[in-house]
Design a protein that fits this description.
- It contains no helices and ten strands.
- The strands form two sheets. A five-stranded mixed β-sheet has the order 2-1-9-8-5, with no helix packed on it.
- It is globular.
Length: about 80
Amino acid sequence: MTLEILTPDKKVFEGEATSVTLPGTLGSFEILNHHAPIISTLQDGKLVVRAGGKEETFIIKGGVVEALNNVVTVLAEGIEQR
């Protein structure tokens, strides 16, 4: 799936991913390849991107996520890469 992580200032990540774990406001959840369409709010917490056997972690400051047609877009209010 294609993943895009954006903040008001910049594009933080764009590329292919096999899974994304997100800090939803009702609890952490994971989006996998060909996930059903979803829109959810996000709270402050850890966002983990997995692709090609590698894992990349970001700390986000709230936001929203949309998954539609195998494209996942994360709009974060703020972000810090670890």
